[in-house]
Structure formats: C-alpha cells, structure tokens
Amino acid sequence: MISEARKYQAFYTKSTPIVDYMVSKLSLQARDKIFEPCGGDGVFVETILSENEYAHIDICELNTRSVEILSEKFSDCLNVTIRECDTLLDTELKFNSCFGGIYDKIIANPPYGAWQDYDKRVVLKKMYPELYAKESYGLFLYRCIELLKEDGILSFIIPDTFLNLHMHKALRNHILNKTQIVELALFPSSFFPGVKFGYANLSIITLRKKSDYKECLKNTFVVINGFDNVEQLNNIDDENLKKYSFKQEDVFKNPEHAFLIAENSKILKLISQSKLKVGDISDCVTGFYSGDDKRFLQVISNELKNGKNYALANIESINTDYKYNSEILSGIDGQQHFLPIVKGGNTKYLKPESWFMNWSKEAVQYYKTDKKARFQNPRYYFKFGIGVPMISSSSITASLIENKLFDQSIVGIFPKDEGLTYYLLAFFNSPTCNKLIRTINPSANNPANYIKKIPFIIPENSVLELVTKKTKNIVDEVRTTGSYNEQIELELFQLIAGTYGI
Ligand SMILES: C[S@@+](CC[C@H](N)C(=O)[O-])C[C@H]1O[C@@H](n2cnc3c(N)ncnc32)[C@H](O)[C@@H]1O
Question: Where in the numbering of this chain does the Type II methyltransferase M.TaqI-like domain appear (predicted)?
Fold first, then answer.
C-alpha cells in the first residue's frame, strides 16, 4: 500500500518566502482570473486572497479529503470555485486548453513524480505523447501553459531536472517556443521545509504565454542562483545572489535545447560549439551488476566503507592470471575464480584492490540469465580504461580500470586511441572537466550520456606528453605510497585549463 502523501505527492508549500515570492511574480491585477491546479490545503489561494479578497480563483484538487478542507476553508468566498478533479485528465480543462486558454494567472506546486496506476499512465501517454509521462510535474506545466491566455503569467515550483534531462527535451521546446520566461530561480531543495526530496535542486519558473514563437525566441530572461537562505527569495536585489541573462534563442540552439547555466560564457561556448566530444574519442559504457552482490561479491576487509555485509575474500581464491585468458567472458574453472572489480567511490587516479567478484563458470552463467543481473557491455570488461563514478560527492573524479571488471555505479571510459588514457585520467579529475559536466548536468550525477557530451580538445603534442608523464607518476606514487604530490596535480590542472581556456 502506498501512503496518501506519496499517492498524491501532498507536500505543501509551508514556506512564507517561497509563497510570497511566487505570488509576487504573478503581478496580480484586480480582475485577474486565477487558477491553482493542485490546491492542497490552499496556501497559495490564502496568500492571493490576503492581497485581493475578491480575486476570482478556480482550484482543482484530486484528493477528496483535501477538497473537503478547501471547501470548508473558503466556504465564505463566492469568488473561489473548488472542483474535485484530475487536472491532467479533466475534459473541461482540456477543452479550455484547446481554445487558447482562459486564465490570466496560474500558480502551482504540482506533484513531482506522482504515483500513477498503469491505466492512467497509458491515457497520459496518449494525451501528452511527446512528454515524459512518468514525471508528473512536466505534464502539469504543459497543461497549465495551454490554459493561460495570451500574456497570462504562470509561476511554478518544480525540480530543476527539466532544464537538462534528455527526457524533458519536448517540454523545453514547448516552453521556449510558446512562452517568454520572466525569471528562473534555482535553489537547494532543503529550502523546502519538511520534505527531503530525492532531487538535488528546486526551481521556480515564472513565464508569460506568447503565441508568436519569434517573440518568444527574442526574449531575454534572468536566472538567479547562489542562494544561501530561503529569505533571499524576497530580496532578489541582494548583491550576493548570482544573476545571468540568457536569450531564449541561444538556449533553443543548445544541444537538446538544454538550459546551460554557467558564469563563464567560455564554458557555454565550448559546450555548444566544440566539434569533438568525449563520446567521439572514446566509448563510454555502464558496468556490470551480479544481480545479487551479497552472494557473489567479496571484500578484502569488513572495515571498508559498506564492507560489513559481505563475505571476506580468501587470497587463495583470487585469480591473478585472468588477463591472459581469452575465454574470460565464459567464466573460470577451478578454485581461483574471484576477480577484482572497480566499484564507485570518489578515489582519484587509482583505487586499491578491495572487492572481488565470483567469476566461476556457474556464476557467469547466472549473470547472463538472471533478470536482475546486468551483464552489460561485456566487451569492455577486463580492458584498460578509466572509471568515473556515476555519483560524485563534490567534484567529478576518475581512476584507472586496469584490466578489471567495473560495476554499474561506474561509467567505463575506453579511449579509441590508448595514447590518450592518462591525459583523460587527469582531465576527468580536473576542475576544468568539473565545470563542463556540472554545466551540462548540474546534479551530482555523471551518467554515460552526459559524459559523452563533454567537449574534448586535442592537446598539443608537448602538453599530451607532459600530462601523460606526470599522471603516470601520480598513479605510480599512489600505487606505492597510497598518496600523491598535490603540487604535480596542480600543474596538470593548469596544463588542462590552458588547453580549454577555462
Ligand atoms: C505538492 S502538493 C501542493 C499543494 C499546494 N498547492 C501547496 O503548494 O501547498 C500537490 C497537491 O496536488 C494534488 N494532486 C495530485 N495529483 C493531482 C491531479 N492529477 N490533479 C489535481 N490535483 C492533484 C495532491 O492531492 C496535493 O494536494
């Protein structure tokens, strides 16, 4: 059974600065017809009524219990209409969307990733064929843009994932061509009281409906970030906030219409204009999963992070000759059938050999057939390459995969020209690379599809040789002492920054 809160995603906006900022963005006028598409307990409606007690407001809400609360709360307000309905499926709203919209202002904190039963998902997919139907907030935003009159304004608080994720390309296209963005505020989800979202960041997007796409693309909008606290939302002129202006046409021209937001215009130029990307010079692939690590994975010491729940590796069962075994993808006969595997964790340059996977013939057969197991991209197993953890703690990191297995929490990067391996190893650990990937995808995730999009600039030969030599020295030092000279690393970073100009 899923909880009521999860089913309806009933996380109410209990933050006065957020509500006040959003209401102020609507520039309310006395005669506005206003819509709240997911009423909850009516926090936006109350604030609007406190400014204009005669405001004409329509509320929709799916949850019967919330509708009862709303009806009671606003029983004296004849100008407030409450309907129990599904905003995404309702025929009246659909009708009004098709005829150019009827609202002057819309305000919402829609459900994010709301649970939808299978039948509803099928209907939604039909109604919104281009959109990512699994993520409810995008559907609400789309529906509400359609419900706005020409020049009507909308303010939504939603996760920032629509700015970059591949799945939201159609939504970005719609926003950029059907609306003029007024302002986009980006801040940590911790500003939203009471709920810990799985999402890294939240955004408040305010936009104005415009039917002429040329007018939309000509529009320039402001992005605000760098918030230290939620109160700054009510003081947007605060000098400590960072503000950037973008023309919609430039965003539209970005790969997949992604909103690339960076302080430095050089970073944006590199991403949108560089001819070569990491995906052109290397193969970037996700690694292996046994399907049941508790059963097949062993650890060198239980003291290791997350090592408590795994069986201890027995030195006698570890195979060291596997690199010369041409049949390795079918598994190993005999007692020595455990092989080293590189797992996630943000260790730079070289990870100690700590984890070992059962690679017996029977185990490999299991990996190839089990539903949960991922025997994916096997032609890259046991090859020499680079591993970048899918999740970074702060900055992106990379370490060598020295002919080992690598698990699915890692993206394996295998340069087509092996001569680039150590250069790329330094690059993926550098602040230059971090700036690029965090602009391509601001969350702390580095899936293969984003890594492939990082611009690659072929270094001059002298730089390539020097970086390769110094990086090899660092790797050797880590292998023998467990640490490395950070001064040398700084020199590497400077050489890479010199090549990229950032
Ligand atoms: C995130 S809460 C926000 C409530 C309120 N607007 C606020 O900010 O406090 C989302 C609300 O939308 C309602 N809801 C979820 N799916 C809906 C749908 N398809 N149509 C209408 N309301 C829906 C939930 O019951 C919940 O009250």
Answer: 73-187
